Structure formats: structure tokens, C-alpha cells
Automatic annotation (TrEMBL):
<dbReference type="InterPro" id="IPR002052">
    <property type="entry name" value="DNA_methylase_N6_adenine_CS"/>
</dbReference>
<protein>
    <recommendedName>
        <fullName>Methyltransferase</fullName>
        <ecNumber>2.1.1.-</ecNumber>
    </recommendedName>
</protein>
<keyword id="KW-0680">Restriction system</keyword>
<feature type="domain" description="DNA methylase N-4/N-6">
    <location>
        <begin position="23"/>
        <end position="233"/>
    </location>
</feature>
<dbReference type="InterPro" id="IPR002941">
    <property type="entry name" value="DNA_methylase_N4/N6"/>
</dbReference>
<dbReference type="Pfam" id="PF01555">
    <property type="entry name" value="N6_N4_Mtase"/>
</dbReference>
<dbReference type="InterPro" id="IPR001091">
    <property type="entry name" value="RM_Methyltransferase"/>
</dbReference>
<comment type="similarity">
    <text>Belongs to the N(4)/N(6)-methyltransferase family.</text>
</comment>
<keyword id="KW-0489">Methyltransferase</keyword>
<keyword id="KW-0808">Transferase</keyword>
<dbReference type="InterPro" id="IPR029063">
    <property type="entry name" value="SAM-dependent_MTases_sf"/>
</dbReference>
Amino acid sequence: MISINIYNDDCIEVMSRLENGSIDLILTDPPYNLGNFMKNRDTNLGKMRKNFFGDAGWDDMDFKEWEESMNRFFDKSSNVIKTGGSMIIFMSILKVETLIKIAETHGFYYKTTGIWHKTNPMPRNMNIQFVNSTEAWLYFVYKKRTGTFNNDGAMYHDFIETSVTSNGERRYGKHPTQKPEILMSHFIDLLSNPGETILDPFMGSGTTGVAAKKLDRNFIGIEIDECYFKIAKSRINEDKQA
Ligand SMILES: C[S@@+](CC[C@H](N)C(=O)[O-])C[C@H]1O[C@@H](n2cnc3c(N)ncnc32)[C@H](O)[C@@H]1O
């Protein structure tokens, strides 16, 4: 019997109360904090960022503030994760090196920077520039060089390709940066075992929780925004999924 515990709160507060060394895999997709960067540039994307992210209030910190928030996040993560536990954290490619430096100061061993490629991205500005179709993810193991890696002899590339989140999944998630379920399942399958515990401290509409539950993992999810929290709750608990 697996357990699901989700919280509508600031992740730093909740992680301070979780049991030390109780998490096997942290799988999370925090705000990339590109709101200010994009707003200050004269692009169509600037407008989109303002509408979806800047105005959402969680994507527009200045760089120093963001760095400090990630420092607090890795500090709490180092308390709650087991030795040998893994972390996958999605991030803008622009921020990868900074994040690795912060993670290493908290005992996380850096393994990989990988790419998620979307096969059908929005063809925005396709006649004047390269269409944005990728996001990065970083893979760390806490205080060990190797963690669970259920590859069964198969070779896994540092690259995963899926379509963008389907309309069927979006119907219930309604989050501007909702990830496809198959993407989260990929990491849960490979980096944890049934019965283990997955934490997503920035759970948004709860995609990690939906995937964790289907794969028989315990799940702890945290979301600060009440509206997204309610959506995550109904997706995870009431099985409102595509
Ligand atoms: C990129 S979204 C996650 C989307 C998610 N992967 C999904 O599929 O729906 C990041 C989320 O983190 C939440 N957030 C931002 N700061 C937070 C904090 N301090 N504690 C908890 N949640 C936070 C935001 O409200 C936002 O919904």
C-alpha cells in the first residue's frame, strides 16, 4: 500500500518538517526564473513570459534572489534525501552551471546534464530563428557516485524525446509548464523502485504524483499556489487524468 502526501505550502517550510533521509528520488521542475530575462528582451516571447510567468509571481526573481532560493532548496534536499538517493531537476540550459555549483556545495554528486526534446513544439518565429524545442534536466546522486539505475542492460542516452503535453493531459492539468506524464514516468522507472518514496517540492499540477502513483511509489508533493495545488490534488487523488 503506497502513501500520498501533498501540501499546499512553501516547499522550504514543508521540507524542514520531513524526516531526514526519507526520500529515494527527488524529481522536480522548479520555476526556471526566466521572467525578468525574457521581459527585458524585445521578442514575442517577452510578451508570452509576461502573461504566463512574470505575472504568475513565481518566475521573476532577480538572479541573486533565485540563486539564494536554489541554495535553500538544495540545503533542505540534502537533509531529506537518503545517501545514494537521486535527484532529477529540470532547468533552463542557461542556468545549468550555476545549479551544478550550488548542488555540489550541498553534497550532491553531479552525473549528467540531459535534454528533453519536444517533437512538436510551437513553431514560434520559425522563419527567423531556431524553434525552441528543448529543456535541460540535471541528474545528481547524493553523497555517492552511483544510485539506483534500472537499465536492465540497455543503454540510456542523456536525451529523451516526447511530444509536448497532450491536450488530454492538459485538460486536467491546466498548468502553463505542465510536463507530460511519460517524461516523469521515464525517470521514476529508471531511478527508483516500487515502494520507494518520490518527492516533488515544486509539483505544479501534480504530474510527478500521477506518474509515481501509477508506478507504485510513495509520493510527497508540495505546491505553493492554491489553484495549482487543487488541480494536483484532483489529478492525483481523484484520478482526473487523461
Ligand atoms: C514549473 S512549475 C511545475 C509544473 C509541473 N511539473 C507540472 O507538470 O504541472 C513550478 C511550480 O512551482 C511552484 N512553486 C514556486 N515556488 C514554490 C515554493 N517555494 N514552494 C512550492 N512550490 C513553489 C509554482 O507555483 C509552480 O506551479
